[in-house]
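We give the chain.
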Amino acid sequence: MLKTFEVKDYALIDQINVEFGKGLNIITGETGAGKSILIDAMGLLLGERASTEVVRKGANKSIVEGIFDVEGNNKVKNLLGENEIDDYPELILRREISLKGANRCFVNDTPVSLSFIKEIGNLLVDLHGQHEHQSLLHTETHIDYLDEFGNYDDLLTKYKNKYNELIKTEKELETLREREAILIEKKGIYAFQINEIDDVSPVEGEEEKLNGELKILENSEKLAELSSEVYQILYDADKSVHDSIVKVKNDLSKLAEIDKSYTESSNEAETVLALINDISSFIRSYESKIDLEPEHIEDVRKRLGSINMLKKKYGGTVHSVLEHRKKIGEEFELAENFSKRITDLNNKLNSIRIETGKLAKSISEKRKTESKKVRQGIEDSLKELGISHPNFRTEILNELAVDNNFITVNGKSFRCSAKGIDKVEFFISTNQGEDPKPLAKVASGGEISRIMLSLKSTLAKNDKLPLLIFDEIDVGVSGRIAQKVGNVLKDLAKYHQIIAITHLPQIAGLADHHYVVEKRLKNRRVISLIKQLDAKERIVEVAKLISGEEITEASLKGAKQLMSNKS
C-alpha cells in the first residue's frame, strides 16, 4: 500500500505531500489542473524514463518519493535480500532528476539502478495510464495480459533462459560457418607460426634467467681470477686470514682461562673462524663450477636471440608470444576439426530445441487452461459493467516453422519467440447472437475501457499486486454504466488499494478518500496542488462534477445521493 507520496519541483508541481488510505482513493480536478502530471510523477517513481524537461523552471532537480507499507510482501523482501538492501516494514523509493544529468534512484536510502527501481515497482503497483486501454487494440499485447493471469512465472523464466541459450547457440553456429573459409585460407600461415614458436618453445621468466647466466659466463675469467685470489688470502696462503684467526682464538682461550672477562671475546673469535671457513668453502665450491667454455656462451646468446626474434614478430613480450601461440593453436585445431565442431554444435542446438520445446509446450497448455478462467472472469465482469451478453474468447495459435528460427515440439518444428510458440488474440461479441470477432476490430471506445477494467479486475482478484492506479479508466462511459464502473472499482478496493483519477460523479461518490487537484498562482507562476477533502468538501466537489462550477441544490442533493450509495 502507498502511504505517502511526495513530489518536488516536477513540471507544474512546486511541492506536494499527500497521504493515501486503504480502499478507494479518488482524485478529481478540472482539465489541465495537473491530475495526469501527478500520475506521470508516480510512473517516474516506478521506473519510467524521464528527461530533464520535467524539472520545474528555476529548480536544479525534481524529486519524487513514495513510502509503501510492504509488511508481509515476501516478493519484495526476497528481492531486497538478494540485492543486500535493508528490509523494513516500510519501503522508501526515491528518484531525483537533475538538470546536470546526474539522475539517481534510491531504495531505503541505498543507491540503485533504474532497472532495479522498475523491478521492485512491478511488485508493488499496476499503473494503468490514461490511454493504456488502447493497447488492447494491439494484438501483440494480448499474450502478456493472458500471462499476467497465470501462476507460471517460473516456467516463463525457465523458457526465456533456454530460449536465450538457443539464440546464442544459433549465432555461434552461424559465426562458425562464416569463419570456415577464412580459417581454411589461414591454416597454412598458422601452421608456419606454430612451428616457428614451438621450435623455440619460450618460457615466461626464462629471459631474465638467461641474461643473468650470460653475464656470469661473459665474466667467467675475471670471476675465476678474483675467486682464487680471495681464497688464497683467506685460507691457502702463508699467514692466511684463517691461520691468523686460529692463533688469535687460541690466545684468547688461554686468556679466558686466567680472566673470565675474556670469555665473550674468545667465543666471538670462534664465530669469526667459523665464518672464515664458510666463506672459504663457498669460494672453493664456486671456483669448481666456473664455466670457461666459449661454446656454452654462444648457446645462451643464440637462445636469447631466438626469443627476441619471436618477441619482435608477435607482440614484444614472451607473454604475448605465448598468448598468440594459444590463439592460433585453437584456430588451427578448429580448422583441422571443422566438420566435427559443426556437427557437435548442431547436435547441441537440436538438443536445446527439444528442451525449449518441452517448456514451450507446458506454457502453451497453461495458457489454454488459464484462458478458460479469463473468459469466465471477464464475461462476469462485463455483465456487471452493462454488457448483458458478452462472449469473450482467447484464440491461441501455433505456426509450423519455415526457417531456422524454430523449436521442436513432439517431433515437429514450430516458430517461436521469447514468449513461446503461441500467438494469442482476444475475440469478443457484445451483442447476443453474434459470433466473436477480433477485439481490435469490433470494440467501441467505451467497450474497450470496460474490457480493460474487466481484465484488470479479474487479474487483481488473483492478488498479484497490492496497489492499482487508474488514470481515467472511465473514458467513453457515462450515466448508468459509470455507476457500474464505480461499483467494480469499489469491489476491487475491498482487496486492494485503488488510486483512480475520474471526471465522473458516479465514481467519485463512492470514494473512501477523495482528493482534488487544483491550479493556483504563486509568485506569479502557476502551480498544481492536491488536497484531501473532508466530508462537506466532498459533497461540494461531487456536486461540481454533476453541474459544473455553478452548484445548485439539485446537484448537492444528487451528490449526497451518490455518496450514500457506498456499500
User: Anything to note?
Assistant: The chain has a mean pLDDT of 87. The radius of gyration is 42 Å. The longest strand covers residues 513-522.
